[in-house]
């Protein structure tokens, strides 16, 4: 099992996609810090300053989805199970765990860039500075949100099995449906994975959920999607 995890982990970190999403995630973190801390005007409240540290979980959700779905597009999922002499459900669970570990590395990198760019810029803003505890809290929420997003994406990729279809549906939900729902039903929108992730990263601070509650909501979505994906994969073994 450890060898299988090592192999899946190596596969996840050596693809071109992971480096592309790493560049995209760090670029967004830096750009968001500049836009919030400089271009948005005066920031004199702590929640506004926390927003400068926010990441973009949908990027890692997209990476997990595209990567996992690509296993089926390129027909490598079944051979991997045969070589490992494990059931396809077990291989998928290990693959998702490998994506979680890689997602953790990406999350730490993205947050390091966000903190390194945002804090010097926020120092020139009026009002109270972010304390080390507040920064640590935002970073913890961001890291957890990015890791959960990666796992959720990998589970959805295994279910959808088409990188193109999955990416299109995901972007429509995140960029079109979620903002529309949030405008009319904020409480309900916060219970979606996208809404909960926004609260966890500090991107949404006028909300009905605490960061801890949002983390629980996002975790429930992620666990449910992972269980469904693994169960469906095991049923394909029987077929």
Automatic annotation (TrEMBL):
Please report the name of this protein according to its UniProt entry: ABC transporter permease
Q: Which UniProt keywords apply?
A: Membrane, Transmembrane, Transmembrane helix
Q: Does the keyword Transmembrane apply?
A: yes
**Recorded superkingdom:** Bacteria
Which residues are listed as membrane-spanning?
Answer: 21-40, 52-72, 92-123, 135-157, 164-181, 211-232
Task: Name the source organism.
Answer: Actinomadura darangshiensis
Record has Nucleus as a keyword: no
